[in-house]
């Protein structure tokens, strides 16, 4: 709605007003997942991009009985998916290292290491905890940090993305075969980055938010 209004040269509508109207008419999605909630007092989101990246994985079952497994890297400030790797097999440490390298390349270009240390938040899965993976992370400027065992809420931003992606993309496209899923993934991730609004970003998509910040950074201070 705000994209249409901006395209017409009209002022944006406060997203809280829309939220109230949707709540009044029972149009909001259910928040409760049915799973007991663990208490988590830490802060995952950061105030600026490229301070902390989080990573996790999820599975997409297909009608044929096969499963596509996806791992991704997400910026904890602007919510952009920096990179992803998908496979019909198991997730390996080599795939996680490829994921890290792609994230650095997509965000900073062809660099051997990031300009400053960036936290890399993940769970304790073998592919993430492998000695080679942690050593490679530090080599390119990432500082690995892991969540407590059995505490997915400690990587809540990645968990939230997974729910959003499965709800708004996987469930709509269908999953007949692994080939169908793999073909749709690039389009889905690009749509999420370019168009999916976030309350924490004033209902802008990750790339809209980044373009707005870049525009403001380029303005002289009066």
> How many domains comprise the coordinates?
1
Indicate the percent of residues in helices: 40-55%
Low-confidence stretches: 32-42
Whole-Å distance between the termini?
32 Å
CATH class call: Alpha Beta
The rounded Rg comes to: 19 Å
- Structural class estimated from helices and strands: alpha/beta
Strand content: 15-25%
SSE pattern, N- to C-terminal: HHEEEHEHHEHHH
SS element count, helices: 8
Number of strands: 5
Which architecture does the CATH hierarchy give at level 2? 2-Layer Sandwich
As for the CATH topology, it is Nucleotidyltransferase, domain 5
> Overall mean pLDDT score?
88
Q: Mind telling me the CATH superfamily name?
A: Ribonuclease H-like superfamily/Ribonuclease H
Shape: globular
Q: Main sheet?
A: 5 strands, mixed
Biggest β-sheet: strands ordered side by side in the sheet: 3-2-1-4-5
Would you write up a description of this structure?
By secondary structure, the protein is an alpha/beta fold. The protein has a single domain, classed as Ribonuclease H-like superfamily/Ribonuclease H (Nucleotidyltransferase, domain 5), CATH 3.30.420. The protein has 8 helices and 5 strands; from the N terminus they run ααβββαβααβααα. The chain has a 5-stranded mixed β-sheet with strand order 3-2-1-4-5, sandwiched between helices. Strand 2 (67-75) and strand 3 (81-87) form a beta hairpin. Helix 3 (93-108) packs parallel to helix 5 (131-139) and helix 6 packs across helix 7 (178-195). The longest helix is centred in the C-terminal third of the chain and has 18 residues, at 156-173. The chain starts with a helix and ends in a 5-residue tail after the last helix. Mean pLDDT is 88; it is low at 32-42.
């Amino acid at each position: 709605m705000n994209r249409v209004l901006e395209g017409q040269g009209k002022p944006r509508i406060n997203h809280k007003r829309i939220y109230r109207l949707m709540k009044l008419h029972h149009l909001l999605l259910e928040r409760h997942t049915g799973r007991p909630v663990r208490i988590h007092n830490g802060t995952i989101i950061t105030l600026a991009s490229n301070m902390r990246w989080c990573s996790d994985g999820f599975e997409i079952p297909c009608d044929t009985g096969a499963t596509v497994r996806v791992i991704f890297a997400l910026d904890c400030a602007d919510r952009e998916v920096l990179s992803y790797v998908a496979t019909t097999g198991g997730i390996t440490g080599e795939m996680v290292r490829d994921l890290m390298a792609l994230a650095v390349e997509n965000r900073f270009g062809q660099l051997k290491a990031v300009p400053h240390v960036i936290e890399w938040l993940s769970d304790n899965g073998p592919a993430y905890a492998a000695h080679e993976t942690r050593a490679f992370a530090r080599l390119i400027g990432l500082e690995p940090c892991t969540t407590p065992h059995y505490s997915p809420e400690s990587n809540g931003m990645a968990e939230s993305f997974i729910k959003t992606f499965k709800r708004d993309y996987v469930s709509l496209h269908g999953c007949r075969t692994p080939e169908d899923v793999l073909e749709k993934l690039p389009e889905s991730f690009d749509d999420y980055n370019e168009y999916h609004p976030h309350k924490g970003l004033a209902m802008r998509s990750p790339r809209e938010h980044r373009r707005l910040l870049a525009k403001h950074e380029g303005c002289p201070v009066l």
